[in-house]
Structure formats: C-alpha cells, structure tokens
Specification:
- The chain has 348 residues and is α/β, with parallel strands linked by helices.
- It has two domains: 2-230, 3-Layer(aba) Sandwich (Rossmann fold); 245-343, ACT domain (Alpha-Beta Plaits), CATH 3.30.70.
- Helix content is 36%, strand content 30%.
- It contains twelve helices and 14 strands.
- The strands form three sheets. A six-stranded mixed β-sheet has the order 6-7-8-3-9-10, sandwiched between helices.
- The structure holds adenosine-5'-triphosphate (ATP) and magnesium ion.
C-alpha cells in the first residue's frame, strides 16, 4: 500500500547540506504495523514525514496504492493527507480546547449537526478508552490520556494509515504498554495500517510485524521483526537488541576483557540465537553428541518478540578446531544465529 522508492531528502543549511534520508526503499503492506527504529538523528522523523509529504522528498517516489503522490497537485495532496493520521511524542493538543474540542477539530466544516458531532466524538473517545472525558482540558490529563486524545483526534477523519512519531517516548513503561496495546487493537479492529518510529526496541518487539533499522539516513536492515532480531546483521541492530536483553552487560565484560571470560587455549565463546524455546537443551546435547564439542552454557535468556520466544545462549565451546567449525556450519545451516565472541582456538 505504501511504497517508498529511492527516497532521498537533503536539507540545505548554513553549514552545508544535510542528507537526512538516503536512497530509502520500503514497502508497507495494508493492515500491518511497520516499525522504523534508529538512534537520534538517523532520519526517522524526516522519512516518516515524507510519507504524507509534510516533507517533500528531494528525489524518489512515494506511492500510495500505486499512485505517486509526489506528482499530485497541492489540492490532491491535501485529500491524500486526510487518509493519513499522525500522532507525536509531545501529543500536540490544543491546550485551550477541551478534549471534545480537540477531537472535534478535524470534523469542523463537515456540516455535521451538533448531535452527530457529539455522537461521533463520543464514539472516538470510547474507542480510545476515554469515555466521558469530553469536558477535561489537556492540562488535566496524564500523558497517556493526552496521547489517547491525540489518537482519537487522528482517527476522526477515518484515516487508513496512522503515522506515529515516537508516540510513546514521553511515557513511562506501563503507559507505553497500554498505548501500544491500544494501537494494536485499533490496527486489528479498524484494519488501520500503522507506521511508527521509535528508538525503543521494546516498542518494536511488542507490536510490529516488520521493522526497518535506520542509521545515518539509510535503511540498513529490514524484514520481519522476528527474523531481523533473531539474526541481526548490523552492529546498530545488535545494539538495539541488546538494550532490552541482558546481553549488553555480557558485551561489557567482553570489552573489558574481564577475567571471568578467560579462555583456555582451544576454547572459544559463541553466541547462539535460536528461534524455538525448546530447541535450547536439545541443541546443546545434540552438538555435544554429534561433534564431540563441549558446550558450557555461561549465559542464557528468552525474550518475547510478538508472540514468539526468541532464545539466546552464550557458550564456551571446546573440542578441537575442526569440530567447532563443523558445529558452527551446522548451526548456520539450521538458521541458528551464531557469532564467535571470543576466540582462543588457535592460541598456544
Ligand atoms: N528542517 C530541517 N532542516 C535542516 N536539517 C534537518 C531538518 N530536519 C531534520 N534535519 C536533520 O536531518 C537529520 C535527521 O533528522 P530527523 O529529525 O529525521 O532524525 P530522527 O531520527 O527523527 O531523530 P530523533 O530520534 O532525535 O527524533 C538530522 O541531522 C537533522 O539535524
Ligand atoms: Mg525524530
């Protein structure tokens, strides 16, 4: 439904030009939740804003249902924007208007009677779990409630697509979870396509179907959330993954060359990422039996990505260079992500 083809955005500034988005290709299917993750300055907001042309790409095409919207007239672009709602980290509510006034705002000029308008706003508030709060002002609401109002407002014009720019970044973890659940529910109930950007791995893990990882303006990795994070190829992807797993602490031990990780000659430390919960113990004993390699588990964890458990193990392997190499080849063959973290196989 949404296709970005070779999208670039260059900002001309006093200190020279900034390439905020570089040659991005993305396809986002109808009805999915697509996440874009990246560190600050990676170009996420700029890319998101290219989807509704709040930012005009410097080059490339933005297709909505096969129509290149960069070629449309301003009037047609305005019509397209009505199909696309947007919410933000800072909620962007009108402080001087009540909840009712905020949610009703996009419906102004539609010629709805007062009753119809009230009914519609009531419906929208019910959808986001804020029934009865019509008369409150934003200052009287918590962050999570403000975001619910912003979502109701974004949904007022019945968009097919909702763009979320760090919609949960200003919220605590519980509230983040509640808002993500709401987005998931709206996605399912209304068939709403959601594109969200975030720097929080948890957000991607919790609700996204596909993910694109951005670094320095470019999309460096993309695919199904589970596959990308089961076998991350880029250091930036790994660092996001480690934020929510306990791997980060382990990597620090490695970097600090901690004596805890002192290897004897012939040993190496492997990280294994595998896809099925029960594969763990079976895999370790299978490798020991088949290749005569001892695998000593020094760290293990299971995390949930969507509905799937994703397992990680760190093992010290010992048993001869060839046997360990065979072991690694086997693991790669059965799509277990394997990485040599520390190597003393050829040390003497
Ligand atoms: N209007 C603008 N004019 C000039 N440079 C801009 C403009 N908007 C963004 N940039 C630059 O483009 C790059 C990408 O910015 P962008 O806001 O898209 O990143 P981001 O990934 O959303 O970051 P954050 O997580 O901090 O929101 C940055 O170097 C930024 O300074
Ligand atoms: Mg941003």
């Amino acid at each position: 439904m949404i296709r970005l083809e070779d999208v670039c955005k260059v900002f001309a500034g006093a200190q020279g030009s900034v390439e905020a988005v570089k040659h991005v290709h993305l396809t986002i299917e109808t009805g999915e939740i697509f996440g874009i993750i990246g560190f600050s300055g990676a170009g996420k907001s700029t890319l998101l804003r290219c989807i509704n042309l709040l930012e005009r790409p410097t080059s490339g095409r933005v297709l909505l249902d096969d129509t290149d919207i960069t070629q449309l007239s301003e009037a047609d672009v305005r019509a397209v924007r009505r199909r696309i709602g947007m919410i933000f980290q800072q909620f962007n509510l009108f402080a001087s208007r009540t909840v009712f006034g905020n949610v009703a705002f996009p419906l102004a000029g539609r010629g709805l009677s007062r009753e119809k308008l009230k009914a519609r706003v009531g419906e929208l508030l019910e959808l986001v779990g804020l029934s009865g709060r019509e008369d409150s002002y934003p200052s009287q609401l918590s962050g999570g409630q403000k975001q619910r109002v912003a979502i109701a407002r974004a949904l007022a014009s019945e968009p097919e697509i909702l763009l979320c720019d760090e919609a949960t970044s200003a919220l605590d973890p519980q509230t983040t979870h509640a808002i993500l659940q709401l987005l998931r529910e709206l996605n399912r109930k209304l068939g709403l396509t959601i594109v969200l950007i975030t720097h929080e791995m948890q957000v991607i893990k919790e609700i996204c179907d596909h993910v694109a990882v951005m670094e320095d303006g470019a999309v460096v990795e993309q695919g199904e959330v589970f596959s990308v994070f089961a076998a991350p190829r880029r250091p930036v992807t790994r660092s996001f993954l480690e934020m929510t797993s306990h791997m980060a602490g382990f990597r620090r031990l490695l970097e600090e060359k901690s004596p805890v990780l002192q290897l004897r000659p012939g040993q190496c430390i492997l990280s294994l990422r595998y896809l099925e919960r029960n594969a763990c113990s079976a895999l370790v004993s299978y490798l020991s039996r088949t290749y005569g390699v001892d695998l000593n588990i020094i760290f293990g964890n299971i995390e949930m990505i969507g509905d799937h458990p994703l397992g990680g193990l760190i093992v010290i392997a010992e048993g001869g260079e060839k046997a360990i190499a065979d072991c690694i080849a086997y693991l790669q063959n059965i799509h277990v992500g394997v990485e040599v973290l520390l190597d003393a196989r050829t040390a003497h």
